[in-house]
Amino acid sequence: MDDTTSWTTRSKPPPSEREVLNVLHQDLHAAAELARTPTAAFDAATKEVPAARPDPHGTQRIRNASREVSMARVELMKAHNRLDNYAEPPNCAGGFEARHRIVAARSV
Q: Which domain holds residue 86?
């Protein structure tokens, strides 16, 4: 192997702690932004349906919107948990290296 190919096959250095935190914060903001749309749709669906006895279509719209809000909140909580676990890794004596494993799991 010559010198020109050896440097291209090396792996990149691990990201700095600041870079990891930036990625985790970006993920959190993205998840929060994605949660806004289903929440607005749920609010709209509940305002459109009369309080007494909603028709079946109105009830279904509320159920669908509620399901979307629930899924968006699960993703938001995952982003929160990744950030929290990075800041305070649970039962982690490995330090910075263990934090990188948590960040790698964020794509799961």
A: 14-107
What's the burial of 27, exposed, middle or buried (CB within 10 Å: 0-12/13-18/19+)? buried
Position 68 scores a pLDDT of 95
List CB contacts of 27: < 8 A, sequence separation 6 or more: 79, 82, 83, 106
What pLDDT score does 11 carry? Answer: 78
Higher pLDDT pick, 64 / 57: 64
Residue 81 falls inside a structural domain? yes
CA pair distance 26, 21, nearest whole angstrom: 8
Instruction: Quickly list H helices, the chain.
Output: 3-9, 17-48, 56-87, 96-104
Residue 18 domain-assigned (yes or no)? yes
- Whether 42 is in a domain gets the answer yes
Residue pLDDT, tens place only, 85-97: 887 765 555 555 5
For the chain, what is the domain count? Answer: 1
Within-domain flag for 7? no
- Look up the pTM and report it: 0.63
